[in-house]
Design a protein that fits this description.
Strand content: 15-25%
CATH topology of the largest domain: Rossmann fold
Radius of gyration: 18 Å
Oligomer: single chain
Structural class: alpha/beta
Distance between the termini: 25 Å
Bound molecules: NADP nicotinamide-adenine-dinucleotide phosphate
């Protein structure tokens, strides 16, 4: 794999994929909606994934060996669902392998623990768009990898890290839910796994998240302890009682995928207690 195109290259995950691909000696092309500097000499080109022709042009022009599709917009179906179909069509036209990043939000949480064989049952518009994207990608390119992940953490860019810090320093108020449970993944582990899956003879759904199922409140406590900050600003709450819509407890069973990877997917209790792990 020598030429990698990363969509969403200016995003929290995309930036780390770009950095790792550069470190592996790849030529890297980054694209994003607004463009801008990413890492090293990589400057993201402005490409809106909602524009099918623009996506086709950049992919056939760049002729990548691998496309890692991270771009999404939580509240925009056209970006998340249609955009993923456009990227899959463009990657196929360019003869590139595709690793499509999906999410545990395709699940409702009714079963709590989900394997790669479980079918999506989304309960939010964002989850429905990610599920639609999975279906489009698999139909357009059955050889694509669909990598479902969970809460992405481990860098100062992480919205969850920023929220915990805002609660700890009093610039924000609110609760951290004890019944909102996910399997966070370190962004560097996720990026490494995506590139490894891109090089592997793999296709179809893979689960790429950490082995520790933790609540938002436990994440807050772990971040406070790691950073030596008093946890007084952290207030526990119940998502069920608050009525905030969306899945409560969703755990990706990653054992099968982890068994195929050299990349070790660390658990949140491990990487959030190690100050050296913070990017
Ligand atoms: N963050 C999490 O906890 C989490 C959990 C599960 C799954 N995921 C998945 O991980 C992936 C990456 O998430 P992230 O946290 O890195 O996202 P992020 O930081 O919000 O970055 C989103 C990226 O998508 C780009 N983008 C948005 N709309 C676009 C459009 N219409 N056309 C082209 N590019 C567009 C943005 O470009 P601009 O900067 O130029 O606007 C940005 O580069 C997503 O597929 C998401 O579903 C994330």
């Amino acid at each position: 794999m020598s030429r990698v195109l990363v969509t969403g290259a200016t995003g929290a995950l995309g930036r780390v994929v770009v950095r790792q691909a550069l470190a592996q000696g790849c030529d890297v092309v980054g694209v994003s909606r607004r463009g801008g500097p990413v890492a090293g000499r990589v400057e993201a080109e402005r490409v809106d994934v909602r524009d099918r022709d623009a996506v086709q042009r950049v992919l056939t022009g760049a002729r990548p060996d691998l496309v890692v599709h991270t771009a999404y917009a939580q509240d925009d179906w056209a970006t998340t669902a249609d955009g993923s179909a456009h990227v899959a069509l463009g990657a196929r036209a360019a003869g590139a392998r595709l690793v499509h990043v999906s999410s545990d939000v395709v699940f409702s949480g009714a079963r709590v623990t989900y394997s790669e064989r479980d079918l999506p049952d989304p309960v939010s518009p964002y989850g429905a768009a990610k599920a639609a994207a999975e279906t489009a990608v698999a139909a357009i390119d059955p050889s694509a990898v669909i990598a479902r992940t969970s809460l992405v953490m481990g860098s100062r860019d992480s919205p969850m890290e920023r929220r915990v810090h805002a609660l700890l320093d009093g610039t924000a108020t609110g609760e951290l839910f004890t019944d909102d449970i996910r399997c966070p993944v370190h962004v560097a582990d996720l990026a490494s796994a995506l590139l490894e899956l891109g090089r592997a003879d793999a296709s179809g759904v893979r689960h790429v998240a950490g082995p520790d199922a933790v609540s938002r409140f436990e994440i807050g406590e772990l971040v406070a302890a790691r950073d030596g900050l008093p946890p007084a600003g952290l207030r526990p709450g119940s998502r069920r009682a608050s009525g905030v819509p969306g899945p409560l407890d969703v755990r990706l069973d990653c054992a099968w995928t982890q068994g195929q990877l050299r990349t070790v997917l660390r658990g949140a209790r491990t990487f959030l207690s190690d100050p050296e792990a913070l990017l």
